[in-house]
Amino acid sequence: MYKKINTAQYISGFKLCLCLSINLISPLASAQMPSPQELFDRLGIVQQDVSRLNQGEVVLFNVDSSQETELTTGVIIYVLALPTQVSALIKKDGLASLDPRSISGEKIPLKSNIAVFKNFNLTVRGDDEAEFIMGIPSDQYNLSTEEFKLINSQTSKQSDKAADIYRQILWQRWQSYRKYGLKGIAPYDRGNNTVVTPSADLQAAALEHDLATNYFPELFNAWSNYPHIVLPVGVEESYTWINRLVQDRPTAILTHSFIVSDVQGELVLSRQFYAGHSFNANQLTLICLPYKKGSLIFYTNRNFTDQVSGFGSALKHIIGDKLARTHVIELLKALQKHFKFN
User: Fold this and answer.
1) HSE (CB half, 13 Å, CA atoms) of 183?
2) Does the pLDDT of residue 81 top 50, yes or no?
3) pLDDT(22) > 70
4) CA separation (Å) from 133 to 128, 154, 155, 190?
5) Is there a contact between 133 and 155 (Cβ–Cβ < 8 Å)?
6) Is residue 47 helix, strand or coil?
């Protein structure tokens, strides 16, 4: 269930990095895309909230989480652009082009080789670099046991070699996910016989009650069981790699997205199935619907990180939620400004 939260609470948000290259007309979308009023009713958005949206303010809604390691965010914003204009920006440059924390990124064609990562540069700092190059399992980097073995098998421990190793790791992770889906995501080795399984987090996210689940059950079934179920008609997928500052450290992120595009709106499902550090995995849903002179964007985010579990979990969640909502609102405000909302 979703519950509207008091907007006097902390406002924050997590990243929304979408670099998509898709152009399609979808009978699936035209048959099932909800209206703004349907989503208002479902989310408990009242007239006062609608008035605030019309003035360009953001409205937050609560997204229930089911796991200790999960941070959730729900945001609505009004932009003076048609859904097709918003999607054109996403398809051309991705919302990452509006994100000051994004360093670089590229689309990954479905038929690619390791050269697709040639422009990814690993930038690390002092102790981080030592832990990566020396192959020491910890929470400084999200790497599997086999990936640490790969690092340790290298005769050279020079910094320039680290980038080559990381490109190989990204290539192998992308290939494994393409072939096996969530089951192909290798666990993260934290040392001391401790592992973290981002595949389980993303499976939970795919099965949880989400903003568009009731409207697109076939899509979410394909999403949960990718790549073993044929995509519904009108759905297309894309991949990107991104290098982005997370907690002031550059990190590699691998993203897989579905998009449904129609005159009645745009739907984006996106999961970050690999992140280099700080968080384990991420799923977001974005619905962009025609509204007045532009569009309403309904956004939900499910972010998984073991940094908010264990002792002091409640306080960690408060801090994590605040940071998460701050980032996504900054990004959506940048999108709103891009289309000159006054």
Assistant:
1) 7
2) yes
3) no
4) 9, 9, 11, 16
5) no
6) helix
Residue recorded with tokens 């809604």: 61
Count of CA atoms in the C-beta half-sphere (13 A) of 160: 0
d(CA 255, CA 173): 11
Given a cut of 90, whether residue 38 has pLDDT beyond it is yes
How many other CB atoms sit within 10 Å of the CB of residue 330?
Answer: 18
Cα within 13 Å of Cα(154), Cβ side = 21
- From 130, 127, 174, 178, select the one nearest 151 (Cα to Cα): 130
DSSP bridge partners of 265? 262
Is 2-107+197-338 assigned to CATH 1.10.287.70? no
Higher pLDDT, 258 or 7: 258
Pairing of strands 281-291, 102-107: unpaired
Residues 6 or more apart in contact with residue 318 via CB below 8 angstroms: 10
CB 289 within 8 A of CB 296: yes
Residue 40 main-chain phi, psi, to 5 deg: -55, -50
* Residue 156: band (very low, low, confident or very high) from pLDDT cuts 50, 70, 90: low
127 vs 328: CA distance, rounded Å: 29
Q: Which position has the token pair 């490109």?
A: 167
Indicate if the pLDDT at residue 74 is higher than 50.
yes
In this structure, of 14-23, 24-33, 176-185, the range with the lowest mean pLDDT score is: 14-23
pTM: 0.86
Non-local CB neighbours of 59 within 8 Å, separated by 6+ positions: 4, 7, 45, 49, 52, 53, 75, 76, 77
- Which tokens hold the place of 127? 């102790």
Structure tokens at 109: 């064609």
| Contact (Cβ atoms closer than 8 angstroms) between residue 275 and residue 282 | yes
